[in-house]
Amino acid sequence: MVKTVVAVWLGSALMLSATASGHELKVVQGFNNPESVLADRAGRVFVSEIGEFDQDGDGQISVIEPDGQRRVLASGMNDPKGLALIGRDLYVTDKDRILKVDGDGQWEVLVDKGAFPASPRFLNDLEPDYEGKYLYVSDSGDIANQGGTSGAIYRVILATNKVETVISHQLDDRIKAPNGLWMDDTGEVLIFADFARGVLYKLDLLNRHLIELATGLGSSDGVAMGANRKLYVSDYVGGKVFSLNMEDEVALEHEGFQSAADIGVTPDGKILLIPDMKAGTVTWLHLH
Q1: Is 203 strand, coil or helix?
Q2: For residue 244, what are the β-bridge partners?
Q3: Which of 88, 139, 156, 169 would disulfide-bridge 103, Cβ 3.0–4.6 Å?
Q4: Tens digit of pLDDT for each residue in 63-72?
Q5: Are 75 and 63 in contact (CB under 8 A)?
Q6: What is the value of pTM for the model shown?
């Protein structure tokens, strides 16, 4: 077992402690229900903070600067969750709508609930295509009841803001509560985790062919790809992070979180970012 150092940032203060682990860790504390993280090429990390669940207006997007300082970029949201960055614009799922935030923190409603083919229940993750023409969004449906029959994945055509159904429970009853999304560079393959089933799926967007990549992933939440070509999946309830290699073999990478939510990676793919909602932290996990 390798002993590593955990760096804990409290505002501008850096506190160090030791832990027994195979990974190097860094932790930033003090968030209010952090749900999703996203890193940009400037070294900033965006964090969506839900605030109190179902209390409209208390959600916000914070930014952790490369030096560890934290600031609020945008506030007054409802329950912000998934994040996507296209150019200078940040896109956010906010309960039953999608918001667009500019570089100055001013936001507007990009897609309201009435624009969806079916009334959204629990908009969750966001993923742009490689060219930035489309925005994919998961609706985890009645997530408290294993998704019910309302789980779906939609596609927003950004030129028109039109919303189309990609796949749903009505089209394939394996779809329960889709959550984390990841798209390859071809724009033809969408990988997603189902929170209710603990399954990681691969969806061929050209023919809508759906296959299971892995099962037994707990309450699957976020999905991210590392530079090592491993897919990482967080288990929200179990507080774990799993990896899936090119041979579709599953391994437990890290555990001990209270609630590992929508993970992200740094642009170089070498560090996994894990928001822990119940603990109010974001952890940097160096990947092997």
Answers
A1: strand
A2: 231, 250
A3: 88
A4: 999 988 999 9
A5: no
A6: 0.92
